[in-house]
Amino acid sequence: MLRERCPALANKTYFNYGGQGPLPTPSLDAITTSWKRIQELGPFTTDIWPYISAEVNSTRGRLARLCNVPAHRLALSENVTTGCVLPLWGLPLNSGDHIMISDSEHPGVVAACHELARRLQLQVHVLPVKQLRCGGDEQARTDREVLAALEQKLTSRTRLVVLSHLLWNTGQQMPIAAVASQLQQHPAKPYLLVDAAQSVGQIPVAEAAQAADIYAFTGHKWCCGPEGLGGVALSERMLSETHPTVIGWRSLQDETRAVADDPDPFHHDSRRFEVATSCVPLMAGLRCSLDLLEQEGSDHDRLVHIRRLSEQLWHKLQLIPGVSPLLDGPPPAGLVSFQIHPETAGVTPSEVVKALGAQQIWIRDLADPICLRACTHVCTSQNELAQLSDQIRSLSAMDS
What we know:
Elements: E1 13-14, H1 25-41, H2 48-67, E2 74-77, H3 80-88, E3 98-102, H4 107-120, E4 123-127, H5 139-153, E5 158-162, H6 176-184, E6 191-195, H7 206-211, E7 214-218, E8 230-234, H8 236-241, H9 281-294, H10 299-318, E9 323-325, E10 335-340, H11 342-345, H12 349-358, E11 361-362, E12 364-367, E13 370-375, H13 382-396
Parallel strand pairs: 1-11, 3-4, 3-5, 5-6, 6-7
Antiparallel strand pairs: 2-8, 7-8, 9-10, 10-13, 12-13
Helix pairs in contact: 1-9, 2-9, 3-4, 10-13
């Protein structure tokens, strides 16, 4: 089992997969083996380049298959933020254009969008999705409400929509493919940027990744890979209509030269959004983690298992006086957000996190909306669900 191969899970009760997943020992060994091989070949010799090329191509192909897109549409990145921001800043936007950002996006992406808007004099509009709390069997209702809100907020000048696949705060799933279809029917055909930080490794992503213009993800959360490596799936029009932003030798068709009179120096595929030297051994580690994850079942089977666990946790929390899950029904995936009402417990979310941490139970608190978040994974055990719910029950009764 994957759980037994993660040393970080041996001495703690862990619910922070949405922040960072534990690294399995075989993945760490794969990274170490790669480091050693690079030093054996020589870090900058003629012998090393075929090895590095094979590692890069193998990893690009693996992540492309995960997203079910051609390899030329998959750029390697260091994290979700760079995967989002580097293509974002290459979009052909003009002064007066409108961009729309959901009210549940991660601050890193929001800040990048607002800075881009400031520099290019764009208008920023908000797509309200934070209030959608259906859960359970009501996903179709959520989908309808998202599409209705989008239709209401779109303008003739909207050129970009930013929407996460799985909201990092409430845990609600967004209908990415349907949103992309709706945008294609809009006269301006806005680009769709999707933050997939909470989806890859947890839910099936192929349909959404194929539909989005920018679908950025990381390997260090639900995939249980090393931090510092991720990817971004790009649409064909992104490759033909956009320009590179942060530029380095990996962006160039000929990395050995750059001259002022070259009208077309950059790759015509996803590599135009790659920059320079990256940590090659991480690639072996991520591929190993993905192999181990697949041994736990298909992406659909893993999601069924994760949903079963999150539904159990949701029900346990719902039965605790003074505790309210954010969603009205069981979560669609593994993010279980909830609130402990201060008038009954007398403790703040940060105090809850600290108290649980003292018991080696790890969740996190979020600021918008103010809540606590626990993540269930294929590595999560029934005993861990019971430990967390028992401790939450004790904390919620502190002042009652």
